[in-house]
Amino acid sequence: MKKTVRDVDVDGKKVIVRCDFNVPLDGEGRITDETRIVGALPTIVYLLDHGAAVILLSHLGRPKDGADPKYSLKPVADALAARLGRPVWFRSAPAVIDDAVRAEAASLKSGEAMLLENTRFRKEETANDPVFSKDLASLADLFVNDAFGSAHRAHASTAGIAAYLPAVSGFLIEKEVKFLGETLQNPARPFVAVLGGAKVADKIKVIERLLDKADALLIGGGMAYTFLKARGYEIGATIQDETGIGLAASLMERAKEKGFELLQPIDVKAGRTFDNDTESACYDSDAIPADWMGLDIGPKTAALFAERIRGAATVLWNGPMGVFEMPNFARGTEVVAEAMAETRGVSIVGGGDSASAVEQFGLADRMSHISTGGGASLEFIEGKVLPGIAVLEDREAE
Ligand code: ADP
Ligand code: MG
Questions:
Q1: Is it the case that residue 201 has pLDDT exceeding 90?
Q2: Which ligand is located closest to the Cα atom of residue 377?
Q3: Given CB 3.0 to 4.6 Å as the disulfide criterion, which of 128, 170, 200, 243 pairs with 160?
Q4: HEC sequence for 201-247
Q5: Which pLDDT belongs to residue 398?
Q6: pLDDT tens for residues 78-130?
Q7: Is the pTM of this model over 0.85?
Q8: Rounded mean pLDDT of 39-66?
């Protein structure tokens, strides 16, 4: 377990909080979705209410040549001030830190907040430069990381800074570590994993880890056809993944040796072309016509997967069951999401597209946990050590 803001005394301290304010902006620089700002509030409010002065850090987008006003965090400072109902000091310093920023940080009082400019305005950020890390650290007494979506990157503001300050997690990272980390370490059983998405190669390490950790693996989405093809089935014009075929074959071999249940679609919903309004029909997996493409799991498969999900004590789901962006091929993904919502077990969703599918179906608040990390979630599930989490202090064993 990692220490959190609750485990340290923050009263009268200056606290740097690395947030994920990487929000979507429209052409005029307006924020189109404040979910990430709202998500950051609990940690910020906790610190302010407990007497800390809070200095916020984040990146936004991928500015190419240093300071670029298009990627300024100014709109975030305004949105944050409105949500907090108190001022958030902000200065669009191209160097992120300058004398005015230092002076403001030095005079910042308990219960006050400031936001620094986009950390990626400095190339030293992604280079994890120790001088920049130390300069950031010099503003505060404590580092709090709450940017899970950036925790898989060893950058100055996510990892480097922790070399110069005590470091603990905020509430968002605490929840990710609890659900993804501890569930995978010690899951309530039976532990069923559901995997989909486009390609086997994207998820190969995830599959391998889950073969070790889970009790059963249900495979849908585009990657399922690679398994079907490896078994010698015709998959017609479905998304092709030539390099994945060998991988799928060896994964099936390993599963067989271990007596591990690796479930694949028994039927599919196919279309003539990659288009929502194309002619569509359901086929058994061994009877997909040569010129059709599989775009969703079929109703028999969806029912089978749903039954297994409802009977699980822990379910981890990553990757849509079909091309859910097209309403006519979203049903398989929706049935899986509904079963996750209904299960009495722990239900965890990881992966950007899976999370947006769950949102789209209006089932988000019925999951135990939806990981917000995208790439970071996948690396965590793979069992990789995330640099932004590794630098946080461990709690003493109880
Ligand atoms: P996540 O972001 O949840 O990790 P992925 O990015 O791996 O998921 O996969 C999501 C994508 O996979 C979606 O855009 C979806 O349309 C696509 N997909 C799922 N099934 C198929 C299929 N049968 N054919 C083509 N694409 C598919
Ligand atoms: Mg994705």
A1: no
A2: 1
A3: 128
A4: HHHHHHHHHHHHHCCEEEECHHHHHHHHHHCCCCCCCCCCCHHHHHH
A5: 58
A6: 999 999 999 999 999 999 999 999 999 999 999 999 999 999 999 999 999 99
A7: yes
A8: 96
Domain with CATH 3.40.50.1260 in the chain: 5-173, 187-382
- From 225, 239, 353, the mutation candidate for ligand 1 (largest count of ligand atoms within 8 A of CB) is 353
Domain 187-382 in CATH 3.30.450.20: no
Neighbours of 283 (CB within 10 A): 17
CATH architecture, domain 5-173: 3-Layer(aba) Sandwich (3.40)
Least confident piece of the model among 50-64, 92-106, 230-244: 230-244
Q: What is the residue with the minimal CA distance to atom 25 of ligand 1?
A: 222
What average pLDDT does range 135-162 have in this prediction? 97
Among 174, 173, 164, smallest CA distance to 142 is for 164
Catalytic: 352?
yes
Q: Which ligand is nearest to the CA of 196?
A: 1
Active site residue 221: no
pLDDT score recorded for residue 372: 84
Rounded-to-integer distance, Cα 236 and Cα 218, Å = 22
The Cα 197–Cα 240 span in angstroms is 13
**What does the block give as tokens for 249?**
């074959």
Instruction: Kindly state the tokens that stand for 389.
Output: 């989490």
Across the beta sheet with 216-219, the strand order is 261-263, 216-219, 191-195, 314-318, 346-349, 369-370
280, two tokens: 């569509």
How far is 274 from 325, CA to CA, in rounded Å? 11
